[in-house]
Amino acid sequence: MKQNISCISIYSNSQESLRAIDALQAADCDLQNISIMAKQKCCEGVDDLLTLSSSFEVAEIGLLNLAGNMANLLNNELLFDTFDNLHLQANLLQKVLFIIGVPAANINEYEQAVKDNKILLLVHGKQQEVEYACEALHSEMQQVTVHRA
């Protein structure tokens, strides 16, 4: 069975998230595995680096902006049909996080960060790629959390 693995880091502003994407790019990480999730519109540099950018209205959050791989996931209706068939009540942000392997117990933390105008940088892909990206992002000043499901 394929393991779902992702790493997530939280940033206070778009400049921090852009520096993180630059660090991932410098470490030769595949930018197609990277996504940004935020209430605010991603900065111009982020939109240039990550393909596919979308905005969605989400209950209790308002406008949710996505750039990168997560925008692709939203086009996969089968994933959401499967989620809905489990009869779980969740908003779009919660569904996306659950689908990429974030345990239900951690989803509220990330949802609150978005509500607080923080920016989530997510890397979702093969285990080796995600772990490599995590190493590139992690520092004394930046926490990065790996989730496996």
In the sheet with the most strands, the strands line up as 3-4-2-5-1-6
N-to-C order of helices and strands: EHEHEEHHHHEHE
| Helical/strand content category | alpha+beta
What count of helical segments does DSSP give?
Answer: 7
The helix content is 40-55%
Residue-averaged pLDDT = 81
Strand content: 15-25%
Q: Can you tell me the residue ranges where pLDDT is under 50 for at least 5 consecutive residues?
A: none
Task: Tell me the number of strands.
Answer: 6
* CA-based gyration radius: 14 Å
- Report the span from N to C terminus: 11 Å
Give the total of domains: 1
User: Main β-sheet, in a few words?
Assistant: 6 strands, antiparallel
Envelope shape:
globular
How would you describe this structure in keywords?
alpha+beta, 7 helices
Can you walk through the features of this model?
The chain is an alpha+beta fold and 149 residues long. The chain has one domain. The chain has seven helices and six strands, in the order E-H-E-H-E-E-H-H-H-H-E-H-E. It has a six-stranded antiparallel β-sheet with strand order 3-4-2-5-1-6, sandwiched between helices. The longest helix has 13 residues, at 14-26. The chain is globular and about 35 Å long. The mean pLDDT is 81.
